[in-house]
């Protein structure tokens, strides 16, 4: 039976992290061991015992051979000699995979510590759910998601300056989608990353190319370079050319005449503001002419060195994107001169300002600079986007949402000017700003200030200006404004109804109802359009393509609908996909439309396995109960409601008669509760005392209530056991059609509609809230407030006079 992918990844990370904590190794180092193990597992499953495969797996160097090394005293040495060295040598990678030493006592410990650590690491990857034999790498099934999950977590744990091996996938996807990679219709098109890290950015670019690309990358750190090579193999690109050394001082990709090789696409996320970037070269006499005609970047800041290297590495029709700190857009002196020279050549097609704290090596805000050497003669300016406000918090970092990614890509690719978000800036305007590209100079993202109107406070009325700011609502509800307001004076309106009637007036207005029905119809159109896709999931269904079809359809159906943001609607669907639906689809792909149940076995504090009942991952119990066993469920609910009322009555008596030496204070235990034992004991002591008749009556009542509570609990337990048995029986009776109805209609579509409805409801809440706020703000004039104050003062003075006090 398929395991939930989210559970698999979380379990994988948790196991790895627990093992790491035992050894005390830094996360940035430990990742190399974990990812090497993932690599060996994958290539063994995928290519072992196969002829003419992309990767050769030598006899004795498979994951199964690795498993036989568990517990052996020389396990580390054997992993190196029997597994890794033969595997890399067989594929021409001797000397290229200086990644990890599995016999390193300094990192892994020695003796039994090392044996336990490595044996435990191997055991983690023996999980039957980690089976790559039938893995669809092209749809990023188990492998791609598991790798991405581990990389993100290792980057998060690695701390400042050690997480730069990984570019957040959200940013990588944006870069890949805005440099026209989708137009590369032959695998001979080339892509290059001069600071490739683990290679994740390169792979995201390749994903966008319909026929693939020829991959080149250079990475200064040898261990990270090995990680990149493995990453290429893991994702079906073993022919990728990944080199080491410093790109600025020793670029590895050159033509026969020693000039820099040029590529169709170049992407990079270089380390920010590198000091001494020119150590080892004479920038003035750079043999590759990267700085000629532009200028020399300052010695203490190498940002422009990487940008100029990219420009020099692009073909005359080449396109690229680089992540750099915001400072490159406005810093002065030598960098200002370089910036001016690049702008005058019209190489910069666009700039995207990103939120702060996205990247793992730094918290400072960054930007994407998009370079396009093609069509420079006709280019009239630079398209700028300020995307700094679109993100969510994710732990101690910020993260772009799917809606942010899609919006940035759409707006950039269609060059769509958007208020407070994006605009096309002419070179003439940039020149007037002395070639300063700081985005706030060109895009004002400040929210409109909510100004208090002094005249309205003094004389009453609501300013027309404030009502006019609600114009998007009045365009949809043109007559609603008249139903709410009338003219008060020049430039001021007055609410025509009481504050308490605002919500009802808006909700009951025909135009409001009509537009709500239109949005309801929009959802129904989308649902009917994609319903067959939901019910037709089969083993060949590619989950990524599946959700892309659903989400793009939803985005387009809500496009242009007033008052709602179609990107936000789109995000609701993708949030549900990531939280629930993705796991469900993978289960259906692997197991079919079957509601498989399983026992829930947990270990107690003593390590003993305890049966906690049963569950079904695809269809939780409540869906079967709600559809087939409502009468039985109602019987439980009636008894639970009766129990709740009984417990409330017990609580009320306890609170009333145990406080301040109350009648039942002696019937409480140390927790100040009345129990059957304490009540019985006190009753026995005072029953024959004629002065305690009232207490006796109360105690007898409490005992009856406690007895009723116990009886109800027993009855509920019996009913719950019976309902659970009936529910389990029903699961075995479900047909494939029943399962589809429960999953598609009751679970998926109900949840998606509810999420979208929250967005629709927010429309009325925004309008209602703002109208009420304005009405309350200007409800009382200054004269009315003064009069009210005087009246209150007279009342206070009268009370004081009655008390014999005179207030002067």
Give structural notes.
The strands form four sheets. This protein has a nine-stranded mixed sheet with strand order 3-2-1-4-5-7-6-8-11. The model has no long low-confidence stretch (mean pLDDT 89). It has 808 residues and is of the alpha/beta class. It has 28 helices and 16 strands. Helix 10 (222-234) links the parallel strand 2 and strand 3. Helix 2 packs parallel to helix 10 (222-234), helix 20 (510-535) runs antiparallel to helix 21 (543-557) and helix 24 packs antiparallel against helix 26 (693-733).
Topology:
Blueprint: H1 5-23, H2 27-47, H3 63-67, H4 75-90, H5 105-108, H6 112-124, H7 142-158, H8 169-177, E1 190-193, H9 200-208, E2 214-218, H10 222-234, E3 241-243, E4 263-268, H11 303-313, E5 314-325, H12 334-344, E6 348-353, E7 366-372, E8 381-386, E9 392-394, E10 397-399, H13 402-413, E11 422-426, H14 427-432, H15 454-459, E12 462-463, H16 464-468, H17 471-476, H18 480-484, E13 485-489, E14 492-495, H19 502-508, H20 510-535, H21 543-557, H22 566-591, E15 597-603, E16 609-616, H23 621-628, H24 630-658, H25 676-686, H26 693-733, H27 736-777, H28 782-802
